[in-house]
Design goal:
Length: about 650
């Protein structure tokens, strides 16, 4: 397909974002870019939409090249050249929109200032009167920023630096009468550097000399469309940015090998027996002598990081595939052990440590509880296929749904957590939506409309929060902030509602949720110097996702929603969701040990994989020596890998 045809298609897409006659007329009027004094001005109908200016160019010559890529997008390249030796340079390219922003975002870093939640991540756009600056490495699209004014939504980003000389910083500066997207060379993080959870270190602003004749270049993309309700204008920029993405996939093992590795890790490394407990550990830590040992505290969890139920179901599937009796025995033993955690009121003890160590007031969170209900519905079916009758599995899943339905608030909200006696501890956050897929499943099985009504009421509550606020919250249980994990349940719910009702509105919701999830998805491979951990082990950032605004590092958690994006692509005909699913799959299956993998001088057990990848200055202050690839071999990546494979059984070619 020719470039001109692609441009025409994109123009149609842009027009599709306009609603109402007045907006449509405005949308088809061309944007114009022209020189204005020392800077550039973007106008429409002689009205200034944005201006570009440059500061810090003393001693530098400057050239700029501008290209209009389509009706909404400009590419602007600045070349700066030192006319003499300069001992310290700080260049700032400023894109200013002359309106106050009602919503602004640095994807994965700040959503309207991160004022939701109890975390101590960077709040607001400034600190003690100084604008915050961040390395581009914290953003999923290089240097991406987005802001919505009264008339226009403006997005900007850059090309990927290939050397440390090209590294840059960004700053989004919302004011009462204007909003500025600033691009800064060289890279800095000021006035402080967010270095680990709730912890800041001294800011970084290096003196960068330039030799005579030395050059600095910066290429920006500017994407401008009419502002739309519910922050949907960002979809246009995210769609375009994915088209421009350099989609280089990592080399990984085949699905068949990954299945074998995952089953082996569960049975050989994670299996634990302690008193009445028989199931899986939450993961392995390094000991002082360099060997691996199961974590000694807070170690047995039904879902979230521990994923006992999911692993058990995968072992039952393994028995059906291979006839391996050990898989059947350990799978059923795990499910039977945990089934005793069901309480008379319908709740379920989600951390077995509370039973082992007699902690009666341990919180029961919605994330684990929803996973327990959904997995035990599935476990009932799979156990039956294995010749094992366990009516108590389905009974306890219904019990969870019944309790939550009775506890539901008038506005549809479930809760974030309860005490075992049923007392609600807190309701804030989107995390309560983890119970909606289980409620939909209860309806599918029973045809009891009460479950469907409750699920729809809760779904509308949580979806409305996303559409109004522009973010979801509190799914990562070790944080209390804006994050990505909380919106996974929204996506899964939308897809299941569409499946049982056929209503297109749910598919539209799934698309909107998926674009929000895309603000956490790495669209590029960051380049690191020789000797860096990522370079040494050939780790690709493309397809990873950042955890939350409180945790600035990458992980493979997105494996959890790969089947939804593959199905969304099929139902909508939009190939980007399948491409993104494949990117996630390839990223999330890097550095899975085949039993011979050495990382950071330690041999990793078969099937193991670490949790965190530190793409920016995250963790620098918390450990010496610093490794970008951590040594926490947690359970959940393997569980999600196996769960995705079993949900796509017979369709593994879709992961390519």
């Amino acid at each position: 397909m020719t470039t001109s045809i692609w441009q025409r298609i994109h123009q149609i897409v842009i027009c599709a974002f306009t609603l109402g006659l007045s907006v449509s007329v405005m949308a088809v009027q061309p944007l114009k870019l022209q020189k204005h004094g020392e800077g550039l001005t973007i106008t429409r109908n002689s009205q200034s939409v944005a201006t570009l200016s440059v500061t810090g160019t003393n001693g530098l010559s400057q050239k700029v090249k501008t290209t209009m890529l389509d009706s909404a997008t400009f590419q602007i390249t600045y070349h700066f050249k030192a006319k003499q030796y300069i001992d310290s340079t700080r260049i700032e390219v400023r894109l200013t929109h002359p309106q106050k922003s009602s919503f602004w975002m640095i994807p994965s870093v700040s959503y309207n200032g991160n004022h939701w939640g109890k975390g101590l991540e960077p709040k607001g756009a400034s600190e003690n009167g100084e604008w915050r600056t961040y390395s581009y490495r914290r953003t999923p699209i290089p240097g991406a920023m987005y802001s919505e004014g009264e008339q226009y939504a403006i997005a900007s980003w850059s090309t990927t630096p290939q050397t440390d000389h090209e590294d840059f910083a960004i700053s989004l500066q919302p004011e009462d009468l204007r909003t500025t997207h600033a691009y800064i060379w060289p890279e800095e993080e000021m006035p402080t550097c967010y270095a680990s959870r709730d912890r800041f270190t001294k800011g970084i602003r290096p003196a960068r000399p330039l030799q005579k004749g030395q050059q600095v270049s910066l290429t920006l993309y500017l994407h401008i469309v009419p502002t739309q309700p519910e922050h949907t204008a960002m979809q246009s920029f995210l769609h375009y940015a994915w088209q421009k993405a350099d989609k280089q996939l990592a080399h990984i093992y085949s699905p068949e090998r990954l299945w074998e590795f995952g089953i082996a890790y569960a049975k050989n490394s994670l299996w634990a027996e302690e008193g009445p407990y028989k199931g899986f550990s939450i993961g392995l830590n390094l000991t002082a002598d360099g060997s691996w040992k199961q974590r000694s505290g807070w170690k047995y969890e039904i879902g979230w990081c521990g994923q006992n139920a999911s692993y058990a179901i995968s072992l039952l599937h393994d028995y059906l595939k291979t006839g391996n009796r050990e898989s059947l025995d350990k799978g059923m033993t795990t499910l039977d052990t945990w089934s005793k955690c069901a309480l008379p009121n319908g709740l379920f003890i989600v951390n077995y440590d509370n039973l082992l160590y007699h902690k009666p007031e341990g919180a029961i969170d919605a994330c684990n509880l929803g996973v327990a209900a959904l997995n035990y519905f599935e476990a009932f079916d799979v156990a039956e296929k294995c010749g094992q009758q366990r009516p108590e599995y389905e009974h306890l899943a219904y019990g969870i749904c019944n309790f939550v339905m009775d506890d539901q608030q008038e506005n549809g909200c479930y809760a974030k957590g309860w005490k075992p006696n049923g007392e609600c501890i807190y309701r804030e956050g989107t995390v309560g939506c983890f119970l909606v897929p289980a409620m939909i499943e209860a309806y599918r099985r029973s045809h009891n409309a009460l479950y469907l009504s409750s699920a729809q009421k809760a779904y509308r509550h949580y979806l409305t929060e996303l559409k109004e606020q522009g973010f979801t919250t509190a799914g990562a249980l070790d944080t209390w902030c804006i994050d990505k994990e909380s919106s996974i349940a929204l996506l899964r719910s939308a897809m299941r509602f569409h499946q049982i009702t056929g209503e297109k509105a749910y598919l539209d919701d799934a698309v909107a949720i998926s674009y929000y999830l895309s603000t956490w998805l790495w669209h590029y491979n960051e380049v690191y110097p020789v000797g860096d951990n990522f370079t040494e082990y050939h780790y690709h950032t493309f397809g990873a996702t950042s955890v939350s605004v409180q945790h600035h590092h990458l992980d493979p958690y997105a494996l959890y929603w790969v089947p939804e994006w593959i199905e969304l692509s099929r139902r909508t005909g939009d190939r980007q969701w399948k491409e993104k699913a494949a990117a996630i799959w390839n990223n999330g299956n890097q550095l899975v040990s085949d039993g011979t993998l050495m990382i950071n001088d330690h041999l990793r057990p078969l099937g193991s994989q670490n949790e965190a990848y530190f793409e920016c200055r995250w963790g620098f202050a918390s450990q010496e020596p610093f490794h970008r690839i951590n040594d926490w071999l947690v359970a959940w990546p393997g569980a999600f890998r196996l769960e995705t494979l079993r949900r796509l059984e017979g369709k593994w070619d879709l992961l390519k």
